[in-house]
Amino acid sequence: MAKKKFINPKASSNVYYAREIDVQKMGAKELRAYVQNEGKRLNQQLAELQKRGYTDQSFAYSKLTETPRYAEFLGLSKSGKVKINLNTRGKSRSQLQRVANIIQRFANTKTITISGIKDYYKNVFSTLRGKYEGFGDLTDEQLANILKTDGFTHAKGVLGSDTIFKMIHQAADVDFMEKYLENIGDLKTREAAEVEFDRMQGLLKGFTPVPDDVVIPF
Q1: What are the sequence ranges of the domains in the chain?
Q2: What is the pLDDT of residue 49?
Q3: Integer angstrom CA distances of residue 100 from 35, 71, 105, 165
Q4: Residue 201 neighbours by CB distance under 10 Å
Q5: How far apart are CA 72 and CA 65, in angstroms?
Q6: Which residue in 128, 155, 171, 196 is a FRET match for 143, CA 20 to 30 A apart?
Q7: Dist CA 112 CA 104 (whole Å)
């Protein structure tokens, strides 16, 4: 059987090579090359996010650095920036696969690059302002501050993105929503989260109802 040849990704490619391979089928030698090549590029992206102050706006960076199971794969560069540990010496094939899987997962994430972050927020803001008239009064910074909070991430899991955006539209108050998202951090059910919203917002008088069929594409 002919030996598989590891092909480095083309620098000009718009699609990462990481999406085109199955790391589970790679041998140890191929995995080491993969980790070194793709890992180096991912670390460059992580460094750029940190250097230019985009870490708070990157869902990918937050997921990578704040998820406990990834901690053992991270380290710091000489300049103190977070990076993936690319040391492959003495690692077994299964250990290399774990590192490769993490690299593959995050290397293709939209918000791992600054251009991807800008494009993501641009599309989200455009969608929100097109669907909900009230969002036109909010600045990009105000919307971004809501989207990147831990409370928003938790609320999406409990209520769903569409419901959260309807609530923001109804509340018409960024400070209120930030406080609400903070308050529901320990709530596990949709009913409890909705009750808390009503408790904080009262009867929600004077706001335009939002059609139930409005869906935000997330």
Answers
A1: 18-112, 115-201
A2: 94
A3: 6, 15, 8, 36
A4: 17
A5: 10
A6: 196
A7: 12
What ranges in 52-173 are assigned the alpha helix state H? 59-66, 93-107, 114-131, 140-147, 150-158, 161-171
Q: 33 to each of 131, 184, 187, how far by Cα in Å?
A: 47, 45, 45
Pick from 73, 113, 80: which is nearest to 96 by CA? 73
Q: Which position has the token pair 């992206």?
A: 45
**Location of structure tokens 């998820």:** 67
Give the residue ranges of the chain where pLDDT is below 70.
Answer: 1-20, 132-137, 170-174, 201-218
**pLDDT tens string 104-130:** 999 888 889 999 988 988 888 787 777
Q: Is the pTM of this model over 0.85?
A: no
Nearest Cα neighbor of 106 from 56, 38, 10, 36 is 38
75 bridge partner residues = 83
Say which residue the tokens 């199955």 belong to. Answer: 22
